[in-house]
UniProtKB/TrEMBL annotation:
Positions of region (Disordered): 1-22
Protein name: ATP-binding cassette domain-containing protein
Top-rank lineage group of the source organism: Bacteria
Coarse class of the protein's main subcellular location: membrane
Length: 536
């Protein structure tokens, strides 16, 4: 259906999908044309002689492994980085952007890999921030909230972007935040929308919703450029695909009907697609974590975690499936001590830790890969080795007696960089200099250090390319074989099914079902998560 529509659209524009390599040859002025773009950072060439053209009204996907240079290229197009060489043309006109404001003025908008909303403001305030409409008449100069609200409601209707303008961003889940980010960009008049890994944070239903939104945008004549590691999705939504490898384009304007995800993966990394799976069971009888009747209330007294009981044994991976915002984050935060529980017990290795501070829980051997790595995982301005110390500032090899052991921490950071294949010019660069996937590998490496007894892994492979993903699954399997207990949360249902020994479904704060990961399908799990289906 979609394919045929795509073909019709192409035919209407008089484009001919020719034979050679399945590339589509445009015949009109591109919405964006990047020519010979090169960008160097100390020790790295992030982009090397990149050539790319994007047609107006198309959804164009950009693929490539972690650190390939995708985000850098998009930041150049959005005026956040200046290229060392090369030119940018927008609708045939050469431009030179010094700041994102310049790019916005030319109709380029970008939603980042990590969201940049102000938590303590409402959706409406976030959307209009910096682009406030001013009232006329006797209220001249004041912010015209009514006009802004009307416009947001109209836009969210036109593009099917469901949002409530008056709630605090703090209370929103990831999928909703993303819609706010998109609205914010559209509100500024973007005609070319750049989305950096928009689906990494979404569950399948939300991905469908986003793709529906993208199609609406396309129908309105907007051009969409998006980055994704999920090749099946790329094939399902993109009109054309380009692949970047080690800083340069190795294929551009591929026709999705002419390539397979395997071929794309080969273009990206030159290796086969790995799959998540567990072989022999390593589950023991020793219960490492037992949560009983755990309840967390909102300030208004509504339960977000509602009487949850679950146990994780040594050598067991317990998966938790749920649509974003059904209490997963709050449950994890309660176990980590980042949020206090209103009722219930948390017994770790036989001790009730419900009233322990986070530091003590970590010291006792609870490792944590957080969902939002910028808010809870890394200090972006600090170096890699300083980030190695973070959250582990009382433990070896980071300290000796009362002192920070710089040498120990540095040596161990070098080990993590090597073992987890963190692509970086060195351990003294700030974490901000790493690509998104490489930041994640650093966090996983740090949290797996020091042989924890329990690992709480929220989306451990989010934003990570296929090769690195396989490596992280290997680490999880190895740690599990060594007796680690794992609580796994993931929006990637294949990963959740493939990597869990036991799989619970959480809905509105309650564990509503336990499914058998050996037999359940992603579709069945998806409907159990929305409360629609009859869980197995
Ligand atoms: N501000 C910076 N300073 C120094 N190096 C940087 C900076 N930004 C990116 N790099 C480096 O440039 C290269 C490309 O990074 P980029 O973020 O563009 O990769 P990516 O393709 O988006 O990867 P991912 O899929 O992991 O997000 C990497 O080696 C990265 O470490
Ligand atoms: Mg990136």
């Amino acid at each position: 259906m979609r394919r045929r529509r795509g073909a019709a659209r192409r035919a209407r524009r008089g484009r001919v999908p020719e034979a050679g390599g399945g590339a589509l040859v445009p015949d009109q002025v591109p919405a964006v044309r990047l020519t010979s773009i090169t960008k160097r950072f100390p020790g790295v060439v992030a982009n090397r002689d990149i050539n790319l053209s994007i047609e107006p009204g198309e959804v164009h996907a950009l693929c490539g492994e972690n650190g390939a240079g995708k985000s850098t290229l998009m930041k150049i197009l959005y005026g956040m980085q200046r290229p060392d060489e090369g030119t940018i043309e927008i609708s045939g006109e050469q431009v030179s952007f010094r700041t994102p404001a310049d790019a916005i003025a030319r109709g380029i908008g970008m939603v980042h890999q990590h969201f940049k909303l102000a938590d303590n403001l409402t959706v409406l305030e976030n959307v209009i921030l910096g682009a406030e409409p001013r009232a006329k008449g006797w209220l001249r100069g004041r912010i015209d909230f009514a006009a802004a609200r009307a416009r947001i409601q109209e836009m969210s209707k036109a593009y099917g972007l469901r949002v409530d303008p008056d709630v605090l961003v703090e209370t929103l889940g990831v999928g909703e935040r993303q819609r706010v980010e998109i609205l914010k960009v559209l509100y500024r008049g973007a005609r070319v929308l750049i989305l950096d890994e928009p689906t990494a944070v979404l569950v399948p239903q939300e991905v469908e919703e986003l793709f529906g939104n993208l199609r609406e945008l396309r129908a309105e004549g907007l051009t969409v450029l998006f980055i994704s590691h999920k090749l099946d999705e790329v094939l399902s939504v993109a009109d054309t695909i380009s692949v970047i490898r080690r800083g340069t384009t190795v294929a551009t304007r591929l026709d999705p009907s002419q390539v397979t995800s395997r071929r794309l993966a080969e273009l990206m990394v030159g290796s086969q697609l790995p799959t998540p799976e567990l072989r022999d069971s390593t589950v023991t009888e020793d219960v490492q974590l037992e949560v009983g009747g755990l309840t967390v209330l909102t300030p208004q007294g509504r339960p977000v975690v509602d009487d949850v009981s679950l146990r994780i044994r040594r050598g067991e991976i317990v998966g938790l499936a749920g649509v974003e915002g059904n209490g997963q984050s709050e449950l994890i935060e309660a176990i980590m001590g980042l949020r206090s529980a209103d009722a219930g017990t948390i017994v770790f290795g036989g001790e009730d830790i419900a009233h322990w501070p986070t530091r003590r829980r970590r010291e006792a051997g609870i490792a944590y890969i957080p969902e939002d790595r910028h808010r809870h995982g890394l200090v972006l301005e600090a170096s890699l080795w300083e980030n190695r110390v973070l959250g582990h500032q009382t433990q070896r090899p980071n300290v000796r007696g009362p002192w920070v052991d710089r040498r120990g921490a540095r040596r161990d950071t070098t080990r993590i960089v090597r073992e987890y294949d963190v692509r970086t010019p060195g351990i003294d660069v700030p974490a901000a200099a790493l690509s998104g996937g490489n930041q994640q590998k650093l966090i996983v490496g740090r949290e797996m250090s020091g042989e924890p007894h329990l690992l709480i892994a929220a989306h451990p492979t989010r934003g990570i390319d296929v090769g690195a993903q396989a490596a992280i699954w290997d680490y999880l399997r190895q740690a599990r074989a060594d007796g680690l207990a794992v609580l796994l949360i993931s929006a990637d249902l294949e990963e959740l099914i493939g990597m869990s020994d036991t799989l619970h479904v959480i809905l509105r704060g309650r564990l509503v079902a336990e499914v058998d990961p050996r037999t359940v399908t992603p579709e069945e799990l998806g409907s159990a998560m929305t409360g629609a289906g009859d869980p197995a």
